């Protein structure tokens, strides 16, 4: 299953994101990561960093060992480093920890990661100099993206390897992509943008790599993606309920008030609005209708999509707490202590990343079941087998369901949690790790898969609605069908199906299908 590919920078938005001592919002992360917003530090952040740096400078000149300032790292923390080697210690740390391997990580993920590390630096609790933090802001504003590799983070002691590749670029080493997506040495890109490479001082190397920023950035982006996809899941379900002659009566608000999960109520409300005004629904809603109740994949759509919504809300709560956090070890406290801690452990973020992969797999699973009902003449209430034009000569959407099933099967495998695994590292000093980065990477594949599954359901349901003519679908589902028809022709003899599936996937990914539905039904919950 293909993941999002590396793309050139989006055109920067006109209003910069200002990073202060209070961190950044999820909306800020999306603006910088996906829309190229520029970044600058607030005066308060510069003041806070300057004050804290004075404390680190004093410790750097002293003989007393302080972790991250005058000692080695991890299992080498017992080694006392002499004053004349302490700046070299930081450079060596970044170079040795930039040990990633595998494909490049997507541009939006790296930009989110850089912004989130900058937010922690700007808190004034890490001891980093203002000019080092300013280099991170300049990197983002210039559209320069360090090359970060897929493999390397265990999600504890922070996303060490990914963040080290970023720090390496700020030092003028390693590889980056410029604003046009061209791969080139970091030194060349910095020089072209007028950015001076950073000469790291005491503690700075450690502060640049010791955070949960990679997994957190992917969590924030995933929540934004799932907000839209779960609305699209309601759109797809409504089209299937309508095309399969299901009843919207089960979506009544008073029924869902009996089980007051907020996500369930929102999904049921969406389905009711999406099905309003449908001639197809009206055609079988009288006393003569012989169907007592619909199958679970139709009747329980709000319960499944609603549970996924509530899971996203929980994940968003965790993300908000993490966005308000300062993650470093050691950290400079408000009263001036330089204290070791375990806040870099990614467990809180790793858990919800895994939860979201479970939710994505289940929403995709119920979507595939609805598609399959359309194709079975024993269950589709009068539609031709496989929605084929000439069944037997034509296969219709038979193999589109195979594609869905293959993706759903992969999503079930991706739903196996990464966060229950742990492999000790650093000579057993770091003997329990979160695997949060791995959870984030597989969630991105899950979101891609869910997009594909929902797109195929919409593609199939639209064909089913067309085959109910002369009865007309409701305004909202008709608008979605019409948006699809601008790119994919209606029922007829078999055609090359793959391009039609990909067209539907792109319409789903871009938000065009959801926009079409909301143009008739109003903003969905």
Automatic annotation (TrEMBL):
E.C. code: 4.3.1.3
Gene3D superfamilies linked: Fumarase/aspartase (Central domain), Fumarase/aspartase (N-terminal domain)
Family annotation (Pfam families): Lyase_aromatic
Chief place of localization: cytoplasm
Class in the EC hierarchy, top level: lyase
Biological process (GO), any one: L-histidine catabolic process to glutamate and formate
MF (Gene Ontology): histidine ammonia-lyase activity
Localisation per UniProt entry: Cytoplasm
Entries under PROSITE patterns matching the protein: PAL_HISTIDASE (PS00488)
A GO cellular component entry from the record: cytoplasm
Recorded metabolic or biological pathway in which this protein acts: Amino-acid degradation; L-histidine degradation into L-glutamate; N-formimidoyl-L-glutamate from L-histidine: step 1/3
InterPro entries: Aromatic_Lyase (IPR001106), Fumarase/histidase_N (IPR024083), HutH (IPR005921), L-Aspartase-like (IPR008948), Phe/His_NH3-lyase_AS (IPR022313)
Keywords recorded for this protein, A-Z: Histidine metabolism, Lyase
Catalytic activity field: L-histidine = trans-urocanate + NH4(+)
PANTHER family: HISTIDINE AMMONIA-LYASE
Family: Belongs to the PAL/histidase family.
Name of protein: Histidine ammonia-lyase
Organism from which the protein derives: Kineococcus xinjiangensis
């Amino acid at each position: 299953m293909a993941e999002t590919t590396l793309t050139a920078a989006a055109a920067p938005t006109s209003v910069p994101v200002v990073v202060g001592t209070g961190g950044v919002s999820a909306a800020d992360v999306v603006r910088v990561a996906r829309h190229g917003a520029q970044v600058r530090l607030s005066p308060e952040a510069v003041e806070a960093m300057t004050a804290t740096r004075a404390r680190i400078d004093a410790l750097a000149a002293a003989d007393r060992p302080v972790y991250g300032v005058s000692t080695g790292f991890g299992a080498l923390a017992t080694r006392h480093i002499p004053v004349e080697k302490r700046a070299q210690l930081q450079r060596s740390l970044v170079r040795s920890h930039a040990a990633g391997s595998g494909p490049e990580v997507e541009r939006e993920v790296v930009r989110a990661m850089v912004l989130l590390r900058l937010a922690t630096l700007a808190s004034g609790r890490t001891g980093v100099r203002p000019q080092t933090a300013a280099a991170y802001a300049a990197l983002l504003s210039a559209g320069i993206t360090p090359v970060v590799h897929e493999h390397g983070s265990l999600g504890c002691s922070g996303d060490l390897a990914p963040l080290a590749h970023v720090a390496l670029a700020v030092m003028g080493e390693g590889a980056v992509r410029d604003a046009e997506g061209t791969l080139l040495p970091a030194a060349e890109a910095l020089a072209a943008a007028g950015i001076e490479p950073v000469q790291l001082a005491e503690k700075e190397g450690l502060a640049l790599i010791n955070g949960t920023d990679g997994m957190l950035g992917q969590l924030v982006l995933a929540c934004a993606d799932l907000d839209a996809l779960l609305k699209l899941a309601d759109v797809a379900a409504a089209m299937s309920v309508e095309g399969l002659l299901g009843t919207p009566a089960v979506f009544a608000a008073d029924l869902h008030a009996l089980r007051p999960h907020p996500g369930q109520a929102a999904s049921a409300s969406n389905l009711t609005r999406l099905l309003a005004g449908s001639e197809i629904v009206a055609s079988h809603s009288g006393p003569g209708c012989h169907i007592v109740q619909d199958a679970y994949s139709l009747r329980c759509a709000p319960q499944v999509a609603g549970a996924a919504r509530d899971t996203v809300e929980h994940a968003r709560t965790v993300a908000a707490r993490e966005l308000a956090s300062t993650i470093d070890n050691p950290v400079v406290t408000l009263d001036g202590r330089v204290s070791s801690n375990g806040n870099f452990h990614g467990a809180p973020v790793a858990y919800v990343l895994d939860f979201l992969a479970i939710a994505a797999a289940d929403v995709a699973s119920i979507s595939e079941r609805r598609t399959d009902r359309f194709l079975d003449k024993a269950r589709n209430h009068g539609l031709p087998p496989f929605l084929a034009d000439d069944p037997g000569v034509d296969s219709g959407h038979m193999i589109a369901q195979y594609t869905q099933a293959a993706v759903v099967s992969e999503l079930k495998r991706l739903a196996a949690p990464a966060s229950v695994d742990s492999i000790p590292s650093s000579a057993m000093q770091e003997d329990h790790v979160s695997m949060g980065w791995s959870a984030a990477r597989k969630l991105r594949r899950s979101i891609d898969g869910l997009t594909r599954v929902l797109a195929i359901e919409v593609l199939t349901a639209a064909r089913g609605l067309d085959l109910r003519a002369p009865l007309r679908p409701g305004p909202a589902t008709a608008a979605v069908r019409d948006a699809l028809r601008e790119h994919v022709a209606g029922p007829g003899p078999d055609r090359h199906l793959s391009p039609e599936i990909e067209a539907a996937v792109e319409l789903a990914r871009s938000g065009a299908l959801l926009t079409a539905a909301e143009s008739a039904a109003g903003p969905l919950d």
